[in-house]
Every structure is written in C-alpha cells, then in structure tokens.
Amino acid sequence: MTAETGGDGRSSSSGNAVEKALRVLEAVSMPGAPHRLAEIAATAGVPKPSAHRILGTFAERGFVHSHGGGRYAPGPRLRAMAAQVAGDDDRGVDQVLAELQRQVGHTVHLALRAGDRAVYTHKVEADQPFRTSSRIGMWLPLHSTAIGKCVLAHLGVLERDDVLGAAGLARRTPATITERDELDTELAEVRRRGYAVDDEENEASIRCVAAPLLDSSGSPVGAVSVSGVAFLVSREQIEAFAPEVRHAAHSLAAVLL
Amino acid sequence: MTAETGGDGRSSSSGNAVEKALRVLEAVSMPGAPHRLAEIAATAGVPKPSAHRILGTFAERGFVHSHGGGRYAPGPRLRAMAAQVAGDDDRGVDQVLAELQRQVGHTVHLALRAGDRAVYTHKVEADQPFRTSSRIGMWLPLHSTAIGKCVLAHLGVLERDDVLGAAGLARRTPATITERDELDTELAEVRRRGYAVDDEENEASIRCVAAPLLDSSGSPVGAVSVSGVAFLVSREQIEAFAPEVRHAAHSLAAVLL
DNA sequence: CCGAATTGTTCCACGTTGTGGAACGGCAGG
DNA sequence: CCTGCCGTTCCACAACGTGGAACAATTCGG
C-alpha cells in the first residue's frame, strides 16, 4: 500500500477515464429508460463532449442503445450482464432472506446503496397476499426509509452532508423527518442500536425495521429490512424483529463481501 | 501489435480505454463469482497490468469487490446497477412473454446474446409444475439451443466463425449437432423459416422453438423461446408454436430497441 | 410559420494519462 | 530446495482522451 491519503485528492472533479465511463454507465442505467445526453452528462458529472464520446463507445459494443438523436437506453449487452450479475449471487443471498422471512412472516428486502439512493436487489414476499408496491430495481430515498437510515447512519459526516445535500429531505408522508437536526439525532440512535425503524415515514401504512450491511472498513453497503402493514404490526412488534434482521444482515455481509 | 495467425483475430480493437474497461467488467460479471486476475485478463483480452489497473479503479468505486490477492467479484455498486437495469425493462417485456406463455402453455424464455453465448434475462414458467432447470443469468451455448441457433443464423459469416471457433461445438446430448457442415445447413434453414428448433440437442427430454430478435441493422440481439418436455410435446407440436413465437419476437424487438 | 433558445455534434491543439513489456517478490507444488 | 505461475510494481514513451468553443439540428413559443 503506497502512501494513499484517505481523502479525495485528485479524484474530486473527474480523474480517471474509466471512472467517467462508470458514472456514465450508471447514469444510463437509471430508471426512465431513454435518457437525453445532457441529462446523462449532468448526472454523471462529465463534460458533454466526453459523455458523447463515451456513449459512442458503449453503443458500438451494444452496452447502450442509441435511440437516434441523443437518446440513450441500456443495450442488450448491458442487460445480459445485469442478468448474469443478478442471477449469480442468488446462491446464499436468497437462502438467508427466505430464512428471515420464515422467522418474521413479513416481506423482506435487500437493498444496496447507489450514490444518494438505495436500490432493491432482492425481495421475499410475505405469506399474506398483501400488496407490496416494491419491485426489484426500484430505488428508495435514504432519509425516509429504514434501509436508507441504516446507510446514512454509517456514512462519514462529510459524505453524509454531500448525499443529503444532493437528495434533500423530501416529505413523503406526514411522519417523514424533514429537519436535519432531527434526522441527525435519529441517526445517532440508529448507530447506537444497530438497527433503524421507519414508522410510516416513507409510505403511509408501512412500517419497517432494517439493519445495515457494513464492509470490512465499516462503510455501509446496503441494508436488509422487514416491512409490515401498519394495522397488522405495531411499532413495538416491528422493532421486536430487530435481532433477527441484524442476524440476517451479518450473514449477508459474509456472503456478499 | 501482435500479428495473430488466423486463429483468434479479435485483436481488432483493443485501442479504447473504455472498451477495455467494459470487457473487464463483463469478465468479472461472469458466473463463478471470485475470478482470478489472470483469468479476467485472458477473458477480456487485456494485458495483465492493464487489467490490474482497471480493476483497481473498479474496486475504488465499489463496482467490484477485491477479495484480496487478485480475486475479484461483482461489487455492491454493480449489483445495484444490475438490479436497476433488470427491473426497469420489465415494462412491456414481461407482458409480451406472459401473453406468449398463455398462448402456448409452456415455459417461455428471453435470452440476450453476450459474445459467444446467450444469457437468460426473463422467464415465464409453464402452468404445469414441471422442473425447469433454467435460471435468470444462466448462460447457454449457441450451437445446441434454439435460441443460440437463431443468433448464429443471423450473424455475419466472419463473426460466426469467430464465435464458433472460440466456443466450439461441444456435444451436449446424443442429438447435438457437432459437425460444422451440418450446423451451417441447419442455420440456412433457420434463416429461411425465421425460427429455430432444438430437438433435445441441448438437454435430453427438452424441445424448444425460438425466434430471433433483430435490431435495425439486422444483427441478432437475442431470441425468445418456448420450451416443452419431450414426452408431452412432439417435434411437430413444438414447431407449431413458431408463428406465436415469431410474433412475440417482433413485439419484443419493438420494446427493447 | 418563423425566430430564439436549447441541445446534439464536430473540431482540434494540448499534455495528461494510460500503456504494456520486463523485472520483482510471493506462494504452492513437486 | 528448486521451479513454475501469478500478482504486483516500475517506467519511458507517446497515444489517447480532454474539454472549450464553434457549428448544426431540433425544439419551443409566440
């Protein structure tokens, strides 16, 4: 390990060509299929001509599909890669999630962090035939969800400011925490307890508990959650699942990292 | 530059840095999670030091996870991206596939081409509770499957030689076509009819029909297929689904491209 | 239907960045 | 102990990406 100072140093603005490519690829992959060039350039934080050139390369290889005049969508090659990645890790992950689902009887989610949001990657539905509006690939805000609060709580102060500054504290329900002070208090509590609760803060009638997945350096990678319908599960009942959720989180960290 | 002797002429373009990055990313995404550096470098067709540098960049951004000592696996960020891509296109795709499944009553697959193989990206199971050993993300050979033959049939001769040279014509069942001449005849037939049949050539007791998805330039992007258990569906019966499969393929081409 | 604002695309001189063969150290298997 | 193989580091060279600015196409508003 040569003397790498933990801070950003040069990488702050753009840096590596490969890095830009990754950010562009990520931007193209965002929901809302056909994206415009300017939009992608902005999202990726890359100058317009560079984005154009990179997207051209992607298009040549079939990673993105160019819808004519400056509109880009994920291409077949990227879709194939996505299917491979999504299908491969299912070895142990689904097992752990299914086990958790059996223990608690409610819908179980795994979400991974992607910048200033989290993305559902796995889901095990509850036995009860209750509507769950979530879907794999759907992304959720960090400030109003149990999963998101787990992530935020374990970010460095610097990065947290960055992320919250970019995403804002949008009100999602009457219970959503929209004050930064209040959120910070909550996050301290999350760190202390090792799990987070969402008491109808993101969606009315939905309560969740979540526990964070931390990598070897302590950075939050994502979180597991249990979601219950409010009139079936009290706040106390949901919170009582915390031990099981934390256990699952630890198992998943072992499998995923 | 390395003056390759006939065998593997793909050295066509290692020029672009982004291109190399893409190939490396693809190599990391392949099934069999922790890959070794040399393996990735070979698969991607990139010199070892370059692969190392690129993987380092990926690791910094969480796209791959470095298992220490030259072992790399898809990272959280890549998984999140994969979930987004896989989840987003479900708009119309699943509808079309479900419609096809209703018409034919058997298991329906969508696979996309990735280099010298195809990858299942979508699946709608048959009503009948029959084992189907396929899974999203699983990859299948091109020469012994209906889906693969659709792809091969619509490749340029040059690229077909390349692909078949790399992958070979491995025998999968007694019925597998392992002679290049015979395969070429079959592929001409596939082009003529607009669909391909797999009569227990890839897996014993499984018969399939497939129709290709062609992009605007006529290149094969993937294929849709219907798979039936051999002792329930005769070759004639499976082949009778061809019109429906072709129809679905056209609908999907419109949605995906 | 036309002009104005926005967006996609091309160009190009500049120097930063990636490049990859070769050499080094570490690890395993004979 | 020696012998491959593999991951990692090094470095001189120039190719490649870079991005501001100019240009073309398209959209929007009146």
Outline type of chain A: globular
Oligomer: homodimer
CA-CA gap between termini of chain A: 21 Å
Placed side by side, the strands forming the largest sheet of chain A appear as 6-5-4-9-8-7
The total of helices of chain A stands at 10
Q: Describe the biggest sheet of chain A?
A: 6 strands, antiparallel
Rg over C-alpha atoms of chain A, rounded to the nearest angstrom: 19 Å
Largest interface: A-B, 54 and 53 residues
Give the amount of beta strand of chain A, in percent: 15-25%
Question: Would you tell me the structural class of the helices and strands of chain A?
Answer: alpha+beta
Low-confidence stretches of chain A: 1-13
Total E-strand runs of chain A: 9
The string of secondary-structure elements of chain A, in order, is: HEHHEEHHEEEHHHEEEHH
Overall description:
Chains A, B: Keywords: DNA-binding, Transcription, Transcription regulation. Chains A, B: Pfam families: HTH_IclR, IclR_C. Chains A, B: InterPro entries: GAF-like_dom_sf, HTH_MetabolicPath_Reg, Tscrpt_reg_IclR_C, Tscrpt_reg_IclR_N, WH-like_DNA-bd_sf, WH_DNA-bd_sf. The structure is a homodimer of 257-residue chains. By secondary structure, the first copy, chain A, is of the alpha+beta class. The first copy, chain A, is built from 10 helices and 9 strands. Chain A has helices spanning 17-29, 37-44, 48-60, 76-88, 90-104, 146-153, 157-167, 180-193, 235-239, 242-256, and strands at residues 35-36, 64-66, 71-74, 107-114, 117-124, 139-140, 196-199, 206-214, 220-229. The first copy, chain A, has a 6-stranded antiparallel sheet with strand order 6-5-4-9-8-7, with helices on both faces. In chain A, strands 1-3-2 form a 3-stranded antiparallel sheet. In chain A, helix 1 (17-29) packs across helix 3 (48-60), helix 2 (37-44) crosses helix 3 and helix 6 crosses helix 8. The longest helix of chain A is centred in the middle third of the chain and has 15 residues, at 90-104. Chain A is globular and about 55 Å long. The model of chain A is unreliable at 1-13 (pLDDT under 50). The interface between A and B is large, with 54 and 53 residues. Chain A binds a DNA duplex (30 and 30 nucleotides) through residues 2, 14, 16-18, 36-38, 47-50, 52-53, 69-70.
